[in-house]
Amino acid sequence: MFSVVIPLYNKSHVILRTLASVVTQTFTDFEVIIVNDGSTDNSLELIRPFTSDPRIRIIEQENQGVSAARNKGVSLARFDYIAFLDADDEWLPGYLQKMQEAISLFPDAGMYGCPSWHRNILNGESGDASLDRYRNKIQVIEYFENPHTMPHTSAMIVSRQLFLQIDDGNGFPAGMKCCEDWSCFNRMAFLAPFVYVGYTLGIKNNGVFGQITGTNTEERFKLLCFVVDFYNLTHDFSQKYSHKAELFGIFFRYDLRNRVLCSLREKDYQTIDYLFAGLDQECLNELSGFEKWIYTSEKMNFIAKLYVYGTKLMWRTHGFPVLGKAN
Predict the structure, then answer these.
(1) Where are the alpha helices (H) located in 141-223, listed in sequence order?
(2) Per residue in 212-256, pLDDT tens?
(3) CATH 3.90.550.10 occupies which residues in the chain?
(4) Residue 208: its pLDDT value, please?
C-alpha cells in the first residue's frame, strides 16, 4: 500500500524516534526506504537493527542533498502511494490508517495531507496547525486556497504515478536546499485533486540541530537563490494550466508579498533587491509597478507595509480558511 521514503543525513539524535513512529503504525501494509545521503555520524549504526524487519531497507548514496534522496526513494518504491517522512519528524500511530481511509474514499486524487502538531523540542512548546473548517473531515479541497497552511512534507502522501509525471520522477529539484518541497507539491497540485484529511496525526519537530530553520540570518540569505528558483519554477509551470490561473495568481501574490513584508519589518532591503533582481519578468508582472517601487524605497517603508496589510485584508474577503479559525 505505502512506500515510506525517509531521507537521512546526520540525524542520529532523532532518527530512532522517527522510525519508532513508523513501526508502531496501526496500519501495517507498508515498506520503508531509508536513503542514507552520505551521513558522517553514527546514524547508520543506529538504524541497522531495524532492517531485521523485512519491510525496512537502507539505500546508501554519496551526499547529494535531500531532493536527490527523496527522488531516489520514490524511484525504488514498490507500492502505489508514497508517504514522505523526514528523519526528524514523527507520526501518531493512526496516521497511515487514516490516510488509507482517505485514499479509499477518493482514489482518483493524487495528493493526501493532514495537519501536524508543530513541536519545539528545545522548549516543549507545541501547536496544532489545523484548518478548523475541515477538522474531523476528509474531503477534496483546493490546494491553492491558502498559502502556508497546507501539510508539510512529513504529512503528505502522493500517488507515485503522479509524482513520476513531474520532471520524469525528479519532483524535488536537485540541489535545492530549501523550498524543494513546495516546488514539488505546488506543481503536483495542478495535475490532480488534493484531499485534506482533517485529523492532526503528524508531528513536525522544530529546533532540531541541523535544520535550515535554525540557521542564522547570514546563512538564510545564502539560501535566497533557492527561494527565487522556487518562485520562477512554480510560476512558469502554472502558465500551462489556465483553469487554475486566477486562484494561483492570488496564492502567488500573497506568498510573495508576505515574504517582502518580513523584510520590510526588518528593513532588509538587501533581500528585497535580491528577490526582484532574480525573479523572472512574468513573476514580477504579478505585482503592480507602484508596489514594486514602494517595496524598494526605504523612505516608503511605512506606506509599503500598510499596502501589504491592505492586500491581506482584501485576501480575507475571498473567504479562504485560516489556521485556528472555524470560519
Answers:
(1) 160-163, 180-188, 217-222
(2) 554 555 666 788 999 999 999 999 999 999 888 889 999 999 999
(3) 2-213
(4) 59
Q: How far apart are CA 27 and CA 104, in angstroms?
A: 14
How far is residue 214 from each of residues 190, 198, 265, measured CA to CA in Å?
A: 32, 29, 20
Model confidence pTM above 0.85: yes
Q: What cell numbers appear for 72 in the block?
A: 531516489
Degrees to nearest 5, angle at CA 133 with 132 and 134: 90
Alpha-carbon gap, residue 12 to 280, rounded angstroms: 40
The answer to whether 3 and 82 have CB atoms below 8 angstroms apart is yes
Query: Which grid cell is 260?
Result: 517582502
Distance from C-alpha of 237 to C-alpha of 9, rounded to nearest angstrom: 30
**For domain 2-213, which architecture applies?**
Alpha-Beta Complex (3.90)
Q: How would residue 150 be classed by pLDDT, with cut points 50, 70 and 90?
A: confident
